[in-house]
Amino acid sequence: MNQREGYPVDNRGFASSKVAAPYAHTTEGTMSVWRHKGVGPRWIKRGRHVYYSYAELDRWMLSQPVFRSTAEYPGNARVT
Q1: Which is more confidently placed, 16 or 68?
Q2: How far apart are CA 29 and CA 18, in angstroms?
Q3: Which of 16, 34, 60, 76 could cysteine-pair with 41, CB 3.0–4.6 Å?
Q4: Contact by Cβ (8 Å): 34, 25
Q5: Where are the chain's structural domains?
Q6: CA 45 to CA 34: how far, in whole Å?
C-alpha cells in the first residue's frame, strides 16, 4: 500500500468507503446516503465492498460550490 497524504492507497489508487469518508471530510453514513440518492462521488462495488478512486474524490470535491460566507449558502436567505 502506498500513502496519499496519510490515507492508505492500493496500487490502483482506490480507497474503501471507510478511508474515503474522512478524505472527503464527511462520514461513511453520509456517503452511504449519497450512494442511495445517486449524488456524491462515483464509486464501484466489488462484492459487498464499496471503493472510491482518489481521482474521482478529488474531481468531485473540486466541482462543489465554494462560498465566501454562510450568508451565500442556499437556504440562508433572509425573510423581511
Answers
A1: 16
A2: 10
A3: 60
A4: no
A5: 2-72
A6: 14
58 touches 18 (CB < 8 A):
no
* Alpha carbons 46 and 79: distance in angstroms, whole number: 48
> In Å, how far from its chain's centre is CA 14?
13
Instruction: Tell me the whole-structure pTM to 2 decimals.
Output: 0.72
9 contact partners, CB below 8 Å, separation of at least 6: 1, 2, 3, 15, 54
Amino acid sitting at position 4: R
The closest alpha carbon to 28, from 44, 45, 16, belongs to 16
Say if residues 19 and 12 touch (Cβ distance below 8 Å). Answer: no
Q: Write the single-letter amino acid at 80.
A: T
